[in-house]
Write a structure and sequence with these properties.
The structure holds two protein chains of two kinds.
Chain A: H1 3-30, H2 53-61, H3 64-95, H4 98-113, H5 116-130, H6 136-140, H7 149-161, H8 164-172, H9 176-188, H10 190-205, H11 209-214, H12 223-233, H13 238-262
Chain B: H1 3-34, E1 37-38, E2 46-47, H2 51-58, H3 60-90, H4 98-106, H5 113-123, H6 130-138, H7 149-161, H8 165-176, H9 180-188, H10 193-222, H11 225-232, H12 243-253, H13 257-281
Antiparallel strand pairs in B: 1-2
Helix pairs in contact in B: 1-13, 2-13, 3-7, 3-8, 3-10, 5-11, 8-10, 12-13
Classes of the chains: A mainly alpha, B mainly alpha.
């Protein structure tokens, strides 16, 4: 490519990705606006006096600390459990005899296609039978089954690329399937673990629907539902509402940016 | 070695398969059965045959939700897949800044839906929102967005297009599977960038794009729940009442699980039909031996 073309590519790439991030940036700026005052009638690119106390106001208006704690409990329960169950299942799937393997792969793709909306209503029933409705366990429970077939498939794809001889060697040393998984498989699949960590964190931290459906005690609500409270309480106070949004999305963005470093592009 | 090892491998799959059975297979099957019953969670389900489906057919409200969802999907899916493809082509290079750009493109996708909806509620504010301030500054007549039925529907499409990061990543992987020597050979033959795209990239990526379209038909519709619940609660004049919101209302406000299940069955039969037509049209099933 000529120099001019490379330059043009960079300009288009920069502008394109800037457009996608712009709404987030605008919201961040607005979260620093003066609460109660009429909003600016010009686009503000950086506030003259950033009002950081808007972030404290969120905690004064609603029990945000409590909601964040509830979210943290769910994530700390569900994410490590997902990493464990998805990695183990992916390993088992990659080593099992090929007839059964093809079967489970096919079904996993089918399950992946089943939309959440189609199972909402009856998960409610199942959680009721299990007696975990209105408890954080209802939110954590899917992690027992690897949370999503996608995560099992990601691990399967990675374990399949590990030379079989490595696992055979561990087997000959008497390590068994669990030993081969833990000693050889886990250290070699760190990039996939980083990816599944970010994706499963997003699944549980961001989840708005499950707590709305399966919890009814407001003290157990997680942060996304808490944000709804803020909207109902003070719906015109944009700086504080957006500060609440930033508090919710901050940890997610942090985990994402850190996690991306742990993933290496490889095919 | 031997049998013990195979047995251990099978055991490793139990939690996953058990979870899938309990949380995916059983609820999906139950939806299919309950759709033919009257079921309010209090008593036992009562068989009503096609009753729920007749009720849906007669309901203007549910019909409107189907129309809105169709409108949404018809606009959102091509735009989402198209922009994911555009950014994947643009940002597939490994050099320097492109990693940062890729992170930026994926960023909106990982924002929690509750926060994402509030952010767009601010962006779309007709008076103070930055979008209309920007349009005013450019001298473009600014719509009232969420207060107008048509613009509210378009607003839902816009905010879903910004979250096309998953398709973007899938297509980045897809582009890496195109053998580099094909481009080199075409370059030696004097092919232009446009010709390389038309005769190498596009044909090799068609299966990836198709899978993405199918996935998006299912995912983008289901993702309308949080925005329509938080931004507009279905309004104005029911313009953003999409299928998931109706299912939620019918099931959890009226406890009419039978009708809710029937709405889901109709929706997914329809989407299945659309996927079938696309597969047939592209010759992937049903006597298409020219591909």
């Amino acid at each position: 490519m000529s120099r001019g073309k490379v330059f043009l590519l960079h300009v288009v790439s920069f502008c394109g990705s800037a457009v996608l991030v712009l709404p987030l940036y605008w919201a961040f700026i607005a979260s620093l606006g003066r609460s109660g005052a009429p909003p600016a009638e010009m686009i503000v690119w950086w506030p003259r006096e950033p009002q950081w106390q808007n972030y404290r106001t969120v905690f004064e208006l609603i029990p945000m600390g409590r909601f964040l704690w509830n979210s943290l409990v769910v994530v700390l329960g569900a994410v490590p459990l997902t990493l464990l169950t998805a990695s183990v299942a992916g390993f088992g799937l990659s080593q099992i005899e090929s007839g059964r393997q093809r079967h489970i792969l096919l079904w996993s793709v089918v399950w992946l296609m089943v939309p959440n909306t189609a199972v909402w209503v009856f998960r409610f029933q199942i959680f009721k039978w299990l007696g975990i409705l209105n408890s954080p366990l209802a939110l954590i429970f899917p992690a027992v089954g690897a949370s999503s077939p996608l995560f099992v498939l990601l691990y399967y794809g990675h374990f399949r690329r590990v030379p079989r001889a490595l696992f055979e060697a561990a087997r000959l040393d008497g390590a068994g399937a669990w030993g081969a998984w833990w000693l050889i498989g886990v250290p070699l699949t760190r990039p996939t673990t980083a990816a599944v960590l970010v994706l499963s964190f997003a699944l549980y931290w961001n989840d708005f629907v499950s707590p709305t459906l399966y919890l009814n005690d407001s003290l157990r609500y997680t942060a996304p539902v808490g944000l709804q409270f803020l909207l109902q309480m003070d719906s015109g106070n944009w700086p504080v509402l957006l500060a609440g949004s930033m508090i919710l999305l901050g940890p997610m963005v942090g985990v994402f940016v850190l996690g991306v470093r742990g993933m290496t592009y490889e095919v | 070695m031997g049998f013990g090892y195979e047995k251990q491998l099978k055991r490793m799959l139990w939690p996953y398969l058990g979870g899938a059975l309990l949380l995916i297979v059983m609820p999906a099957m139950a939806t299919l059965v309950i759709a033919f019953t009257r079921y309010t969670t209090l008593g036992r389900p009562v068989w009503v045959g096609w009753g729920n489906f007749r009720q849906i057919w007669g309901s203007e409200y549910i019909g409107l939700a189907f129309f809105n969802s169709l409108f949404f999907v018809a606009l959102a899916v091509p735009l989402r897949v198209g922009s994911a493809f555009f950014f994947a082509l643009l940002l597939r290079h490994r050099a320097g800044f492109f990693g940062v750009y890729r992170t930026a493109v994926y960023l909106p996708t990982i924002i929690p839906e509750a926060a994402y909806a509030l952010i767009w509620l601010w962006i779309f504010n007709p008076v103070y929102g930055p979008l209309n301030l920007m349009l005013g500054w450019l001298g473009v007549p600014a719509p009232v967005w969420l207060a107008d039925p048509l613009w509210a529907r378009l607003a839902m499409v816009i905010l879903s297009v910004f979250q096309m990061g998953e398709g973007f990543v899938i297509l980045l992987v897809g582009l890496q599977t195109v053998p580099a020597n094909l481009y080199e050979a075409a370059g030696i033959d004097g092919a232009t960038q446009g010709q390389k795209f038309r005769w190498i990239t596009l044909p090799l990526l068609t299966p990836w794009l198709l899978v993405l379209v199918f996935r998006d038909l299912l995912a983008s519709l289901q993702n309308t729940f949080a925005p329509s619940y938080i931004l507009t609660y279905g309004g104005p004049y029911y313009a953003t009442t999409f299928v998931p919101l109706v299912v939620y209302e019918v099931a959890f406000d009226f406890f009419d699980f039978g009708t809710a299940a029937a709405v889901l069955v109709v929706t997914y039969l329809f989407i299945g039909g659309v996927i079938g037509v696309i597969l047939w049209g592209t010759g992937l099933i049903g006597g298409g031996d020219d591909v």
